[in-house]
Amino acid sequence: MVASLLKMADLNWAVADYTTLCRRQKTLGVQIPYRCAVGPLNLLVPSLDIATR
């Protein structure tokens, strides 16, 4: 999928294949930061995006 996106963006960048990513997944430590919300969260959606879909 990443390779397809880069091709559409006309970028000639190297992308690891699926097998390489699966092998590295076992040793790759990924930490996603999480922030706890104190109050309500506001979600803004442009009305133009809703109207055209």
From TrEMBL:
Domain annotation Transposase DDE: ranges: 1-47
Domain of life: Bacteria
Pfam families referenced in this protein's UniProt entry, alphabetically: DDE_Tnp_1_5
Stored InterPro entries: Tnp_DDE_dom
The protein's name: Transposase DDE domain-containing protein
Organism: Puniceibacterium antarcticum
